[in-house]
Structure formats: C-alpha cells, structure tokens
Amino acid sequence: MNSLAVEVAGLVMRYGEATAVDGLSLAVEPGTVTAVLGPNGAGKTTTIETCEGYRRPQTGTVRVLGLDPVRDAVQLRPRVGVMLQSGGAWSASYPHEMLRYVARLYADPLDVDALIDRLGLGGIGRTPYRRLSGGQQQRLALATALVGRPELVFLDEPTAGLDPQARRATWELVEELRASGVTVVLTTHFMDEVERLADWVHVLDHGRLIASGSPKSLTSDGAENTLRVDGPAGIDVSGLIAALPAGTQVVEQTPGQYLVSGAIDAALLHAVTGWFAAEGVLLDGIGVRRRTLEDVFLDLTGRELRS
Ligand SMILES: Nc1ncnc2c1ncn2[C@@H]1O[C@H](COP(=O)(O)OP(=O)(O)OP(=O)(O)O)[C@@H](O)[C@H]1O
User: Fold this and answer.
1) Is there a single domain that holds both residue 12 and residue 118?
2) How far apart are CA 305 and CA 287, in angstroms?
3) 59-73, 185-199, 269-283, 288-302: segment of lowest average pLDDT
4) Ligand 1 center from residue 95 Cα (angstroms)
5) pLDDT of residue 307
6) Which residues, other chains included, contact 134 with Cβ-Cβ below 8 Å and sequence gap of 6+?
C-alpha cells in the first residue's frame, strides 16, 4: 500500500488571537525528502510539532504513517525520529551515555559508536550536554533522531548553526536515509540545502501553503532566466535591443556588465553574440543565469523582513 507518510488536512492552529496555521493542507510521499519552507513565523514549526504529536490540531486532521500522532503516539514512537529546533536533552547528561540510553529504547538501533563517529562527536564523550557548542548539540539531536532507525524523520532546521563540514556530513546522512527508503521532512532556511536534498518542496506563508513542487519545477515554472554579458563599458545597446525579439531587455547594470532578460533560449544567445561580433566587440564572458530557488522564494514571499 502506497499511503502517504504525512497528510495534513485543513489544519488551523492559533496561539490566543494569533493564527499560526491557517487552514493548511499538504502531503508527504513516502521515501522522499520533503522540505517545508517559509519566512520566520510562517507556521512551519507549529505544523511539524503537530505532526510529531506535541500539539493537538485545533481544527483539521493530521495523519502520520496513517496514524493519529496524539492518539497513536505509542505506536508511532519507534517508527518516527524527531529532531527539535532546541532542547529535548538533559543538560547534565553526557552525550554518549544519552545516545546509548535512547538507543536501548529501540528494537534494532543503529551502532551508536559508528553514528558518533559519522557526526564527528567522538571527542565530546566527557563533556556534559550543557557545555557542548551549539553545533555539537545540533549534531547530537540529529543522532538522537536517527539512532532508532525510524521510517520517517522530522528535522527542524537540522543544519542551523553548523560549520560547513558538519553541514556536509548532515547532508550525506540525509541522502543515505533517502537511499534506504526513509522519509525525511525537514525545515530549513538554506536554499542550497533544499536544492541539493529535497525531492519536493512546500512553501508556507502566513500559515498557508502558497506553492508546492519539485525544486526543478519551482525554478522553471514561468521563470525567465537572464543572460549576463561582460565586455567593454559604455556600449550603446539600443541596436542590440532592436535586433532581439520584442520584450527582451538589455541594461548595463554596472560598467561593462550587461544583463539581458526575456525569453532566454539558444537562438537568443546566438543573436546576442552575433550582434557583438558584427560590432567588432570581443566579449570577456557570457553566461545564462538560471533562476534559483532563492529567487523563487523571494518572489513568492516578498522581500520585506518578517517580525
Ligand atoms: N507558544 C507560542 N505562543 C504564542 N505564539 C506562538 C507560539 N509559538 C509560535 N507562535 C507564533 O506563531 C507563529 C508561527 O510560528 P512558528 O514557530 O510555527 O513559525 P516558523 O515558520 O517555524 O518560524 P521560524 O522560521 O522562525 O522558525 C509566529 O507568529 C509565532 O510568533
């Protein structure tokens, strides 16, 4: 049976007068890495915590592996791994002891020493949790979420505050999880992380779903790429504009750097280089700049800061 790993339908969550999640419906296919994106305060953590069973839906329903995260918590616990944004550890405990303790709660845990090594936590065995650096605490939280070999893991900003090496180690772990069929739901603010890891993306804003799709479909949907041309400064490009299809724009953004925007395709590239050749101009460089997920995200959610 190919039922959904997570199904959120019509979820509404309020904190007093404030609506954090506003009629949200979304699904997570099993075996995928699904990223939940959104500006600060969009309702991601509230949604994820409801899926984890920490909050009861006020309106709407949430199903996780076909079960109710609150009512069926006992059945779900061994099947679902959870990495919280912060907390969840005893401050005086030692990391390795804590991980071994958690591992013993599961029927078939991962090898704790191997996991400690993978996450570069080998040297911190005698440091109490409260004295670990933020990045070490993050990695320990990830190890705790994975040690029970879950079918589904929720990772809330798994690489926030990590150094580049630890980020990469985390990405590799997530890729291995997907390869072994584990479903991963993650929130993040790093678009490069999403482009590298996610099969599917849900974009939230103001507690609502505003876009869904694969990173590729989101970046190519109705998107216009741009062409960047580097050459001598101060060229009169009015003749170039006249030679290109109607609607194509050419501006000299900074001296010697021209940006061509419109429907960029192979014929247009040819026409641009042809025009410069006919003018006897040797270009320093030319390249197509594709729309990134960050461009899409900012287009969808705006550029102003969220409170
Ligand atoms: N315990 C709480 N009490 C009151 N308001 C809350 C509480 N938790 C969250 N909120 C509010 O609900 C809204 C959604 O918060 P949530 O943490 O779900 O957003 P988020 O998308 O995870 O944000 P971030 O990217 O900053 O982690 C925000 O406006 C937040 O201030």
Assistant:
1) yes
2) 31
3) 288-302
4) 29
5) 65
6) 161
Q: What is the CATH number of the domain that holds 253?
A: 3.30.70
Mean pLDDT for the chain overall: 91
Give, as one character, the DSSP assignment of residue 67: B
- Cα of 50 from ligand 1 centre, angstroms: 12
Dihedral of the alpha carbons of 40, 45, 48, 49, in degrees to the nearest 10: -170
Sheet holding 6-15, edge to edge: 18-28, 6-15, 59-64
C-beta of residue 69 within 8 angstroms of C-beta of residue 50? yes
Tokens representing 56 are 């009861």
> Domain of 113?
6-214
Residues contacting ligand 1 via CB (< 6 Å): 15, 18, 20, 38, 40-46
Instruction: Please check whether residues 266 and 147 belong to one and the same domain.
Output: no
- What's the average model confidence in pLDDT over 200-215? 95
Q: Are residues 277 and 145 in the same domain?
A: no
Enter the tokens of residue 36: 């939940």
Interface predicted TM-score of the whole assembly (ipTM), two decimals:
0.96
- Above 70 in pLDDT, residue 2? no
Rounded CA gap, 3 and 189, in Å?
Answer: 29
pLDDT band per the 50, 70, 90 thresholds, residue 1: very low
